Amino acid sequence: MYFIIFGSVEVIIANKRIGNLTSGAFFGEVALLGQTPRTATIKAISNVMAYQLDGADFDAIVDDFDDMAVKIRLVYDERMNRNKKEKDELGLGEIERTVLADDI
Fold this sequence. Notes:
Layout: E1 2-6, E2 8-13, E3 16-22, E4 26-27, H1 29-34, E5 41-44, E6 49-52, H2 55-64, H3 66-90
Antiparallel strand pairs: 1-4, 1-6, 2-3, 2-5
């Protein structure tokens, strides 16, 4: 999971830009919470500094900070619903899974 310290990235699903994330946002929670391959490509659109949180640290934080766990779960649910909507609109049986944060 990554937290954007500064800069901007775009979120791409099935070769379609669906939005941007900026300072203070995070991504990569889908892979950690869903224990699935990543569902989007994240591409830097400016200089970006991001903090990487590995699975063990992520687990420790959500165990210790209920409010953080709730916020991350809400974002996860929202993003999974949006991914499904994008997939349905594009008529894809399954979105090609790509690697997150290769460009950061």
